[in-house]
Amino acid sequence: MAWSLLGRAGGGLTSAADGLAGAGWGPARDKAFERAIGNAQGHFNRCARCTHYVCGRCWHAAQGLCLNCAPDTAAEAMAAQQRGLNDVASQRACAVGQQAGQGYDPNTPRQPVYPQCRTETRGAAFCSGCGYHLAQSTACTSCSAVVPDGATFCPGCGTRP
């Protein structure tokens, strides 16, 4: 039963579309579409290599190809020069870093450095370069837990530090 209803609905749609086409709607639309294609053809070129249609800005007229298939030689040469410049600058910077690295001793123990004066602090309470009081956690006298700066009581046992 469902099949017969579907068949009737499909048949009704087909006959309605046929009625519109018979009334002249189809040929008028086809003619308008052909006119639009004719107008657009003057603005686009078809690339013989990739078969894409491109506008005049993307067309290399001397080659008869789109700019993707026949890029501008001068622009490509400039881009290659810039890539070469960047490559050489990168290689030279790497060589300078390698030379500087020759004097680095990886076995030397390093200590935290105070960022303002770049002096190694070596775990001291004050910076030996500028005398700045370095932030160090205070240990609780009762339980030896770390007491954060500004805390009134120890978070471990509750006593005053």
What oligomeric arrangement do these chains adopt? single chain
How many strands in all? 8
The chain-level mean pLDDT equals 80
N to C succession of SSEs: HHEEEEHEEEE
Low-pLDDT stretches: 1-13
Estimate the helix proportion, in percent: 40-55%
Shape: elongated
Discrete helix count: 3
**Helix vs. strand class:** alpha+beta
Q: Any idea what the radius of gyration is? A: 40 Å
Largest sheet: 2 strands, antiparallel
Question: How far is it from the N-terminal to the C-terminal residue, by CA?
Answer: 90 Å
Share of residues in strands: 5-15%
Order of strands, main sheet, comes to 1-2
Task: Please provide a written account of the structure.
With 161 residues, this protein is an alpha+beta fold. Helix content is 42%, strand content 11%. The protein is built from 3 helices and 8 strands; from the N terminus they run H-H-E-E-E-E-H-E-E-E-E. The strands form 4 sheets. The protein has a two-stranded antiparallel sheet with strand order 1-2. The radius of gyration is 40 Å and the shape is elongated.
